[in-house]
Amino acid sequence: MLRFAQISDCHLYRDKTALHFGVNVYQNLCRVLEQIKRTPAIELIVFTGDLTQDHSISSYQNFTDAINETDFTLPVYFVAGNHDEPKLLQQYLSGTPFHSAKVINKNQWQIQLLASKSTTPSGEVSANELARLLNCVDSHKFQFIFMHHHPVDVGYFIDKHGLLNKNTFYQTLNKLEAVKAVACGHVHNALALKIDITERVIPLFTCPATSIQFDQNATRVENSGKPAGFRIFELADDGQVNSQVVFID
């Protein structure tokens, strides 16, 4: 059994005391990391983007400070969100415990981190990125894909900034029979959805934000009042995927 955590959408500021829709997002991130540390048998973390809210250099340093202040030693893998600058992620998320690799091989599983950042808040997976995905697949392992943008509509305002080339992504999934699940951030809620492609249905898990959860009934960004959270995944050697959501009260 491979057990690991997903965190997403920290939306940090240069000021560690800054509030995002009434919430201290730096403090939230630290509390989430502390909870993950106390969770048994977690082997690694996958961070699915939107580290920064104000796009400042200091916000990237604050993310690494949160890791260091909580004395975090588990490997942390990452992919950029629409707010992030990939070069700054590479620069600041370097050294222990960060890993810039976009393929994780563990037990009977291969975890793929897929870039979906575009020039707009919406997502797009480039042809080169999809080709990289296909080329690095180990046909002897089960596959789990992580990305920032959501590849199916969730039914509220964030859909206007979803994945633009969904059909192209689905065509790629059809070529990968070993894909057992897809996970993403961006939607600021913990949802269990499905990707209905030609040959089969693939589970899609969305991650609660460490910052704020969106009000799904609002027409623009509003804080629903739900606490910060993260996901835990358990991947069995027979290809089964189990997940649970943890909220920090």
UniProtKB/TrEMBL annotation:
<dbReference type="InterPro" id="IPR050884">
    <property type="entry name" value="CNP_phosphodiesterase-III"/>
</dbReference>
<dbReference type="InterPro" id="IPR029052">
    <property type="entry name" value="Metallo-depent_PP-like"/>
</dbReference>
<keyword id="KW-0408">Iron</keyword>
<dbReference type="InterPro" id="IPR004843">
    <property type="entry name" value="Calcineurin-like_PHP"/>
</dbReference>
<feature type="domain" description="Calcineurin-like phosphoesterase">
    <location>
        <begin position="2"/>
        <end position="189"/>
    </location>
</feature>
<dbReference type="Pfam" id="PF00149">
    <property type="entry name" value="Metallophos"/>
</dbReference>
<keyword id="KW-0479">Metal-binding</keyword>
<comment type="similarity">
    <text>Belongs to the cyclic nucleotide phosphodiesterase class-III family.</text>
</comment>
<keyword id="KW-0378">Hydrolase</keyword>
<protein>
    <submittedName>
        <fullName>Metallophosphoesterase</fullName>
    </submittedName>
</protein>
